[in-house]
Amino acid sequence: MTIWQGALVFGAAFLAGMINSVAGGGTLISFPALIWAGLSPVTANATSAVAIWPGALGGMWGFRRELRGSETRFLSLVIPSLIGGAIGAALLRYTPPGVFAKLVPFLILAATILFMAQETIRRWIRNDEPAKSPVKAGWTITTMAFQLAVAIYGGYFGAGIGILMLAALGLMGLTDIHQMNGLKNFFALCINGVASVYFIFTGMAHWPDAIVMAAGAIVGGYGSAGLARRLGPRAVRRFVIVVGLAMAISLFLKNSP
């Protein structure tokens, strides 16, 4: 790793940690940076997952009070989160690198569009109508199936899973956005944790970049939260969207004949 590559990886992780502390979507910064640093898409994806995962601990700890007040029925989503994360990670390992490289622009574009729709989805799930009626068992099973699909996607790629999980929790009747964020961070910890363990034991992560990126993410998440808040979620979100769209377009052009 050259000095400029190390600076790029650390700086991207710093921004990713800062962005995740305010708006989410940090993977849209960390993943492209690793590709620009010279890693293959598959290795970059695995390395980003391993490096950014510790930041989810901080996010979950920040909502520990809301987590303590959560109903036990929401723990049912832990099972599909763990299973789906493992399946997604295994799918990534057995996807031919050339195929994944062609999928990456579509994945980034889809995640960016999902990120752009974040506020619309949040307004929808804040609607208090679902809370006025009990959640039926069949609806819970449907939500678990949805969470399994989200977890598979999360283990495979990861960007945008937070928004999808907020939607799943809204389907289960939750309306307290702070409690939803706490649960979302907990389930993301499960998904990314099991995927990261798989990537580590199968040797898919590139450790020099992972270590530098993990340090950057920790510093960014804890040391720059105040700066990110002063900038405001809107400015941070716009930056993520611009980077996501630019990366998708650049990779579409790169893959074109």
List keywords for this structure.
mainly alpha; 14 helices
How is this structure best described in words?
There is one protein chain. By secondary structure, the protein is mainly α. The chain is 79% helix and 0% strand. The chain has helices at residues 3-22, 27-36, 41-52, 54-62, 64-68, 78-94, 97-116, 118-125, 137-156, 161-171, 177-201, 207-223, 225-231, 233-255. The protein starts with a helix and ends with a helix.
Tally of separate domains: 1
- How far is it from the N-terminal to the C-terminal residue, by CA? 30 Å
Low-confidence stretches are 128-135
Strand content: under 5%
Tally of helical runs: 14
Rg, Cα atoms, Å? 18 Å
For the sheet with most strands, the description reads:
none
Helix-strand sequence: HHHHHHHHHHHHHH
Derived from helix and strand composition plus strand pairing, the structural class reads mainly alpha
Q: Got a strand count?
A: 0
Question: How helical, in percent, are the residues?
Answer: over 70%
- Dominant shape: globular
Brief write-up:
The chain is mostly helical. Helix content is 79%, strand content 0%. It has one domain (3-255).
Question: How are the elements arranged and paired?
Answer:
Layout: H1 3-22, H2 27-36, H3 41-52, H4 54-62, H5 64-68, H6 78-94, H7 97-116, H8 118-125, H9 137-156, H10 161-171, H11 177-201, H12 207-223, H13 225-231, H14 233-255
Helix pairs in contact: 1-2, 1-12, 1-13, 2-3, 3-11, 3-12, 4-11, 6-9, 6-11, 7-14, 8-10, 9-10, 9-11, 10-11
